[in-house]
């Protein structure tokens, strides 16, 4: 199977970037520790913007699917939804599994 590569652009509410950075860094630690199919998972904040870029690589589509099923992903998403200013923007080389797509209607 071919590897999966994804880039997500997270737009964060003003004043919430430090909180999101801590949440995202904790998520990155868990992904590397608990997901055997991960190749790479890292992020960076775009200077002078309330935006983060999240770069992910998985061994295959099954590893990406597994990522969306993990408790740490669901815990992260529940907290992150309170910090997003708008829905994530994705670039990915496969169809995004349904279990990775949150209900954006809950953004406030």
Automatic annotation (TrEMBL):
GO terms for molecular function: catalytic activity. Pfam families: ABM. Residues 4-92 form the ABM domain. InterPro entries: ABM_dom (IPR007138), AI-2_Isomerase_LsrG (IPR050744), Dimeric_a/b-barrel (IPR011008). Gene3D superfamilies: 3.30.70.100. SUPFAM superfamilies: Dimeric alpha+beta barrel. This is ABM domain-containing protein. It comes from Talaromyces proteolyticus.
């Amino acid at each position: 199977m071919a590897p999966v590569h994804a880039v997500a652009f997270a737009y964060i509410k003003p004043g919430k970037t430090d909180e999101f950075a801590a949440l995202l860094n904790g998520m990155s630690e868990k992904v590397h520790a608990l997901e055997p199919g991960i190749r790479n998972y890292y992020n960076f904040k775009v200077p002078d913007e309330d935006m983060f870029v999240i770069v992910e690589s998985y061994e295959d589509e099954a590893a990406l699917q597994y990522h969306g099923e993990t408790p740490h992903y669901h815990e992260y998403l529940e907290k992150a939804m309170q910090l997003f200013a708008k829905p994530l923007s994705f670039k990915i080389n496969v169809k995004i599994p349904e279990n990775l797509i949150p209900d954006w209607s809950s953004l406030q």
